[in-house]
Design brief:
By secondary structure, the chain is an alpha+beta fold. Helix content is 22%, strand content 41%. Strands 1, 2, 3, 4, 5, 6, 7 and 8 form an eight-stranded mixed sheet that branches. A hairpin with a 3-residue loop joins strand 6 and strand 7.
Length: 113
């Protein structure tokens, strides 16, 4: 299985600064155990996994130790990847089981969550 991972530094415009997060987008959910192993291998505070379902991006976050309910900087890192791939989009609609639906929108100086 070949998977793409993006490493993004949130809250900065300088490489190797800010809060690092790994971002993985897949067509379907990977097994929970595999997502946990990937997060352990990445060894960052969080790895975000997202799957597009309809018009929303369902998102989950894993630390090296366990799945967590919400992570702001990994969400913003995911939005950055999505905005980079879909430059015409101004708002990314997300959904997470623990928090429900929410959006991340472009702003003049970054993103608004």
């Amino acid at each position: 299985m070949k998977l793409k991972v993006s490493y993004i530094d949130a809250f900065t415009d300088t490489v190797f600064r800010g809060n690092p997060a790994a971002v993985m987008m897949t067509d379907t959910w990977l097994a929970d155990s595999l997502m946990q192993e990937i997060a352990m291998e990445n060894n960052l505070s969080e790895t975000a996994f997202t799957v597009k379902t309809g018009d929303q991006y369902h998102i989950r976050w894993f630390s090296p130790l366990s799945e967590i309910k919400f992570c702001g900087h990994a969400t913003l890192a995911t939005a950055y990847v999505l905005f980079s791939e879909k430059s015409e989009t101004e708002t990314i609609p997300f959904y997470a089981e623990a928090v429900g639906a929410f959006d991340v929108s472009k702003a003049d100086d970054g993103f608004i969550q």
